[in-house]
Amino acid sequence: MNFSSKLIEEAVEAFAILPGIGKKTALRLVLYLIHQDKDITTNFANAITNMRQHIKQCSNCFNISDDTICNICTNPSRDKQTICVVEGIRDIMAIEDTGQYKGMYHVLGGVISPIEGIGPSDLNISSLLQRIQTEQVKEVIMAISPTIEGDTTIFYISKQLTDVEVNVSTIARGVAFGGELEYADEVTLARSIVARVPYKK
Amino acid sequence: MNFSSKLIEEAVEAFAILPGIGKKTALRLVLYLIHQDKDITTNFANAITNMRQHIKQCSNCFNISDDTICNICTNPSRDKQTICVVEGIRDIMAIEDTGQYKGMYHVLGGVISPIEGIGPSDLNISSLLQRIQTEQVKEVIMAISPTIEGDTTIFYISKQLTDVEVNVSTIARGVAFGGELEYADEVTLARSIVARVPYKK
Predict the structure, then answer these.
(1) Which residue of B has its CA nearest to A3?
(2) pLDDT tens digits, B182-198
(3) pLDDT at B50 > cutoff 90
(4) N or C: which end of chain B has fewer CB within 10 A?
């Protein structure tokens, strides 16, 4: 692409490093900003730099946080005896959006995947085991993706907890609410028959 | 969405002002930047602020430019007697990418559109007429969108040039190269029959 401007070219290349944004989209975004007030671009750049400079990882649960300890860990009204184990911070946002859960979290930072070379030591597992033993945790809820890697991770963590007095549960798996049976994949459907629950009359 | 972080929330809202970027995409971009080196975010923000602060409009042809006069207008090897009239700066980039044109440009900044309240005085038409008269221009090529508004604009400009000794042409319209006739719309196909050209044997 011929930009005939070094400034435009640099801005387009800056946008194009972002995932899912190619040079054409980047140009569209840059031209949009050119036609807006200068303050809008300044505020945009400041918000992003500020975020990247000051964002921290909660030293307790590994959630992203504005402070050393995140506002879920410091919230006194949350149940400290339940830990929900998730792969990433986006899972915390999704669960928080449901408004159904009032316990603590622990971010693993991924799942065990021998193919990608990710072993238990690459994940925040030892800190989880330590938290379970020191914080008098009663239940650990595994909110991990229902994949082979996810199941391996759950199995590995539960093995580490055999001698620890704590309940381990996984989030329910089955056909999605509002989904139609004929479109459910066969593994999900087979599992949901095996794991059928008594109907409360 | 529950971000549990003011910094993330502000960065997401900053990205979400851009066209075609919703809150979910914005969050994906922010989380991508969190996992990159701090310098990448700083360079990204600097490139965009720098561009917005220093970008100018060429005072001759209204192209975007790093200087008061753009590098097409200052290029001594370009043909100063031909002006290609376009709607916007993206059209210049598209034509430059073809490598077929070595003349000058003039950006109108849009087309005449009574519905949107855009009249001739809202566009860079008077400066175009002045350039044609003072710069000994021999040909004006109208590279304007083949729409009703585009045709109106071409008609208006050519009317202003009736007493001026200059050739006015429009870019060729017809079926696109590589396109199939049966998929061409009927107006384009009808026009391309009316405007048929002798085949060079």
Answers:
(1) B93
(2) 887 888 888 888 877 77
(3) yes
(4) C
Which amino acid is residue A56, in one-letter code?
K
Q: What Cα–Cα distance (Å) separates residue B97 from each residue in A32, A195, B63?
A: 21, 61, 15
CB spacing of B93 vs A55 below 8 angstroms:
no
φ, ψ at A200 (rounded to 5°): -85, 110
Query: Is residue A201 very low, low, confident or very high in pLDDT (cuts 50, 70, 90)?
Result: low
Instruction: Supply the DSSP symbol for A51.
Output: H
Does 3.40.50.720 match the CATH number of domain B68-198? no
CA distance A122 to A127: 12
Which residue is closest to B19 within chain A, CA to CA? A29
Q: Which run of H or E residues covers position A142? A: strand A139-143
Cβ–Cβ of B41/A52 closer than 8 Å? yes
**B177/A131 Cα distance (integer angstroms):** 66
Which of A27, A40, A66 comes nearest B7 by C-beta?
A66
ipTM of the complex: 0.79
Asked if A65 and B89 come within 8 Å (Cβ–Cβ), the reply is: no
pTM value surpassing 0.90: no
* Closest-approach residue (CA) in chain A for B28: A19
Please tell me the distance from the alpha carbon of residue A6 to that of residue B66, in angstroms, as a whole number. 7
Q: Could A4 and B70 be called an inter-chain contact, meaning their C-beta atoms sit closer than 8 Å? A: yes
- Minimal-distance CA residue of chain A relative to B57: A34
From the list B4, B13, B52, which residue is nearest A38 (CB)?
B52
Asked if A18's CB is within 8 angstroms of B29's CB, the reply is: yes
Q: What is the residue extent of each domain of chain A?
A: 6-54, 68-198
Query: What is the radius of gyration, based on Cα positions, of chain B?
Result: 22
- The Cα–Cα gap between A29 and A12 comes to 8
Instruction: Tell which residue, A84, A108, A87, has the closest CA to residue A96.
Output: A84
CATH number for the region A6-54 comes to 1.10.8.420
- The per-residue pLDDT for range A178-200, each reduced to its tens digit, is 777 788 788 888 887 887 777 77
A-chain CB neighbours of B29 within 8 Å are 18-19, 21
Please tell me the distance from the alpha carbon of residue A62 to that of residue B95, in angstroms, as a whole number: 51
Domains B6-54 and B68-198 share a fold: no
Quote the CA–CA distance of A34 and B118 in Å, as a whole number: 20
Structure tokens at A117: 């070379």
Q: For residue B13, what are its two tokens?
A: 């809202």
